[in-house]
Amino acid sequence: MTVSDPVVETVVATLSRSATEIRQGLVGRRGAVDEENPSGETQVEADIWADELLAERLSAIDGISQYASEEREAIIDCGGDAASTDGYTVAVDPLDGSSNLTSNNAMGTIVGVYDAPLPARGEDLVAAAYVLYGPITTMLLATEDTVSEYELTGGERRRIREDVTLPDDPVVYGFGGRVPDWTDTFTEYAREIETELKLRYGGAMIGDVNQVVTYGGIFGYPGLESRPEGKLRLQFEGSPIGYIIERAGGRSSNGEQSLLTVEPSEGIHERTPVFVGNEPLIDRLETQLS
Ligand code: AFP
Description:
30% of the residues lie in helices and 28% in strands. By secondary structure, the protein is α+β, with helices and mostly antiparallel strands. The protein has two domains: 6-161, Fructose-1,6-Bisphosphatase, Chain A, domain 1, CATH 3.30.540; 172-289, D-Maltodextrin-Binding Protein, domain 2 (3-Layer(aba) Sandwich), CATH 3.40.190.
């Protein structure tokens, strides 16, 4: 059940252990702080606390040379034996969907392991995982070999599914952003999808993506009239989730191409439109937007 790459295995075991503590530590940390993350979004106490916990533990792993986080402006150079270009870089969204903490809805933690310093292309990922804090704490892990699902309890992980793939027949969809702010071409596509699939949108990417992994369908946060680059971050959300979905037999896109082939150009907090799901749905989207 362990991952063949020892550094990735240590990252995954550390994430499994930490996720159990993060879930327990959410109680009492729901308040907003008067700080903003590098993307200009208000932080809650749990954002900062989860980031500090993961930074301390992941930075200490031999073979990890950089720790980057959606909650931090700068990358942490983990030093150690590996120079910043020799070891892996972990890119973390410590608490994705933290605004759901106030309403007690699903949230997640996302970790991408890049074999390159950031900003990097998604093709440089060697593994990616997300933890879903739902009724049960689960983790979906994609490596170069396979996609596996685990239940996390007591700091340990128990595999419940292996060789996870998206169901062929899509059932659900979820699109972010305000509908009046969608572009006309995306609105046209969304109107078609609305007649075919069931709406599942919960405000935390991980909860919505896990619906797509479980039932088949599409999740997207499109480029908007007011913000053509969209909301989600390429390094911390788009590429890791795109890697997982593509390893599970689906597709990812920024509306034009796979998220994994996007050449980063605006630093580690660069935003991108994000679409992930069954290949035919993504193909249709790219045709519609072209
Ligand atoms: P927060 O972490 O600020 O709650 O944002 C969550 C998120 O980055 C992603 O998880 C969701 O898919 C998306 O934003 C929800 O955005 P909207 O609130 O605009 O729907």
